[in-house]
Every structure is written in C-alpha cells, then in structure tokens.
Amino acid sequence: MVFDDRPDEAKRLEQARIARGFSDAKSAAKFFGWNYYTYVQHENGTRGISRAAEKYASAFRVSPGWLLTGEGSSPRRGVPLKGKVGAGAEVEAIDNGDVEIVEAPSRAPLETVAVRVTGDSMFPAYEDGTLLYYSRQMPPDAMINKRCITELDDGRIFVKVLRQGSEPNTWTLQSLNPHIADIPNQFVRWAAPIDWIKPV
Asked: What is the C-alpha to C-alpha distance for residues 29 and 59, in angstroms, rounded to an integer?
C-alpha cells in the first residue's frame, strides 16, 4: 500500500473531483478551463488551496468549509451520465456543456458511467427512466449472445444483444424490443457488459 502524505485538503479536493464524475485531474481542469499544472499542484498538495477553495467548491458542488477543514458532509459519490438510450436503442450522447451525475452503485470502479433509457424502445426489457451502468470495454466476441452496450466503427453506440454476423468479422445487433428491426453485419469496436441496472 502506498502511503499518502498529502495534506487533508488535497485529499478532499481529489475526493470531490471524483464524486463529481471526473476520473482524472486533466479532464476536470479541461472541462472547467483551469490551468492544469496549477490544479494538479493543488491536488497533489504542493500548493495550498485556500485562495482557490471557493472556485473548486462551486465546481465540484461541495462547501468551501468541507474542502478546507472537513467540516460537514463529504460529497456523495456519483458517476457521469454519458447519454440517453432512445429510439432503436441508440445512445444519444449528452453534450450540453455540463456533466450530469447519477448515483453510483456500491463498489463501482472509477471508470463506471451510466446511460438512461428514454421511451419504450427497449420495453419490456427496460422501462423508461432505467439506468444502465457499464465500465469495461471488451472485444465483441467476449459478449456474443449477451445484452451489452456496444460501439460501431461509425461511432454510434447501442444497447443490443450481440450476434455473429453473416459476413466475415461482422456482428448483428439484435433489438431487445421484438417490434424493432435488428441491425445486421456491423463492424464493432467494443462491447461492454451491463454491470448494474437501476430500475425506475
């Protein structure tokens, strides 16, 4: 085990960043427009954060008091909501300039993200509002005949059952809703098992 001798405020800053859904310091600094080198010095404890505490507290949705002294409640850990699963079970990325955070499953790895089902395109398997969590991107053959979240070569992401395609090195995406047509013979970049499901 590595001994962490950083100041407590630096440890709390890292905790707040992770709870806000940023897996590393670089992504948080980029998102908020901060100088990466200054921020990383605050998080690794080589510079104090007292002058920047208000800014960080506002961004990470914690109180400045907790950040500086530990007074009050620690932030509740969440995971980023990456998109909404709508018509045809395609994931529509959320790109509105903000990071929406949803409740994290217990013992979820830091890489965990979620997508939210919208509408009835995946009924009866999943209802409107259900959250699907995933964390591991695997080769498609590891998920054959299983429900998974998968990305195609053209960048589209779907929640489907992965079946072997009829053409070499392709996959057919079978819909969970029997009224929605399958997508045959697609080139797949990765497939991710659904780790957790949070019903409405």
From this structure: 10
